[in-house]
Amino acid sequence: MRPLTFIVEAADDGRTLKRLLLSRVRLSEGAMRRLKFQDGILLDGVPAHVARCVRAGQTVTLLLPGDDPGMTVRLPEALCVRYEDAHLLVVDKPAPLPTLPSVHQSGETLESRVRAYYGDPPGFLFRPVSRLDKGTSGLLVCARGAHEQKLLSERLHTDAFVREYLAVVVGRPPHERGVVDAPIARAPGETVRRCVAAEGKPARTHYALLHAHGDFSLLRLRLQTGRTHQIRVHMASLGCPVAGDFLYGREDARLPGRFALHSARVSLLHPLTGARLDISSPLPEALAALMR
Predict the structure, then answer these.
(1) What is the mean pLDDT of the segment spanning 98-113?
(2) pLDDT tens string 36-56
(3) Minimal CA–CA distance to 26: which of 152, 141, 140, 144?
(4) Is the pTM of this model over 0.90?
(5) How would you label 3-34 residue by residue, b for 16+ Cβ within 10 Å and e otherwise?
(6) CA pair distance 215, 27, nearest whole angstrom
(7) Model confidence at 104, in pLDDT bands (50, 70, 90)?
(8) DSSP, residue by residue, the chain
(9) Cα 27 versus chain centre, distance
(10) Any residues with CB less than 8 A from the CB of 262 and at least 6 apart, and which?
(11) How far apart, in whole angstroms, are the C-alpha atoms of residue 157 and residue 129?
C-alpha cells in the first residue's frame, strides 16, 4: 500500500469527505468504494465514513493500492531513473530496447528491467503512461498505481503533460518552424507500417529547426496527438525522414538497431500533489555525432 496524506484546507472546511476526495484527489467512485471496504480512508489516523464532514486542519490519509514505495532495489545499474516517488517513476530508456514484450519482441524489455529494479515482487504491474518504439530512446513516465495512471493518461497531449522529442532527420524541413497536421492510418496490407491518409485519425506534430549541418537537421518536436509512429510518419511526409529509420527512410550503420529519435523532455503536473515536474534527458552521443 502507498499512503497519500494531505491536510484539509480552510476552503474545504465543512465539506463531506466524499466531495473532498472527488475534487481534491479526483478519486473515482469505484476506487473510493474499494478503499472504504478495506479501511483505506483515514481521518486523523482513524478509518472514516465518506459521508462525514471534515474540518480545516484535519489530516486525510488514503492507503492506495500499488507498489510498495519501500521496495528493495535489486539491479539499479540496469535502469536509468530520472525521477521517482511513491506515485511516479520516470526512466530513461536506451535503444534498441522494447518497452513491452510482444509476439515480435522477446527477451529483455524495459518492463523486465523495472520489475528487476523493484526486486521482482509478486503481483507487480508495469504501468507506462505512454510508449516508446524499440528504436527510440529517452524519457518514459510510468505510474505506480492505477489511480495515478488514469489521471496521467487523461492529461496526455495537454499542457498538464507535455512531451518533447529531439530528432536528427535527413535533409531539412520546408520551414524553420511548423506544424504537420496530417491524419495517420495503417498502410494498406501492412500490420506495422503507417501512412498519411485522409481516412486516418487526426495527428498533429509541432517542429522547430535547431541546427542544420551537412545532410542532417536537428529538430525539436512536440506531439499534440499520440498516433503510432507519428513523428516518423510526419517527418517522412515532409521529405526528411528520421535518420536511420529503416521503416520510413533508410538504415544507418552508425545507428545499429535504432533511429535518431529521442524523448528529451517531459513536463507534467504531478497527479496527486499538483507540483510541476520538468525532466530532461540529453541527446545520446550517437545522435549528436551525426550533427558533427
Answers:
(1) 81
(2) 888 888 888 888 889 999 998
(3) 152
(4) no
(5) ebeeebeeebeebebbebbbebbebeeebbee
(6) 51
(7) low
(8) -EEEEEEPPGGGTT-BHHHHIIIII---HHHHHHHHHTT-EEETTEE--TTSB--TT-EEEEEE-S--TTPPPS-GGG--EEEE-SSEEEEEE-TT--SS--SS--S--HHHHHHHHTT--TT---EESS---TT-EEEEEEESSHHHHHHHHHHTTBTTEEEEEEEEEES--SSSEEEEE--EEEPTT-SS-EEE-TTSB--EEEEEEEEEETTEEEEEEEESS--TTHHHHHHHHTT-PBTT-TTTS---TTSTT--SEEEEEEEEE-TTT--EEEEE-PPPHHHHGGG-
(9) 21
(10) 136, 137, 138, 165, 166, 167, 281, 283, 284, 287
(11) 12
Q: What is the spatial distance between Cα 113 and Cα 80, in angstroms, rounded to a whole number?
A: 10
Among 133, 181, 215, 252, the active-site one is: 133
133 classed as catalytic: yes
Return the closest-CA partner of residue 210 out of 248, 265, 276, 156. 265
Q: Are 100 and 90 in contact (CB under 8 A)?
A: no
Three cell numbers, residue 118: 523493484
Distance separating alpha carbons of residues 71 and 143, to the nearest angstrom: 15
Which of these, 65, 61, 27, lies nearest to 41 by C-alpha position? Answer: 61
- Cis status of the peptide bond prior to 173, with omega within 30 of 0: no
Q: Are 151 and 185 in contact (CB under 8 A)?
A: no
Instruction: Summarize pLDDT for 233-271 with one digit per residue, the tens.
Output: 999 999 999 999 999 999 999 999 999 999 999 999 998
Q: How far apart are CA 73 and CA 109, in angstroms?
A: 17
74 band by pLDDT with thresholds 50, 70 and 90: very low
Smallest CA-to-CA distance from 44 within 64, 17, 68 is with: 17
26 conformational bin, left if phi > 0, alpha if psi -120 to 50, beta if neither: left
183, pLDDT greater than 90? yes
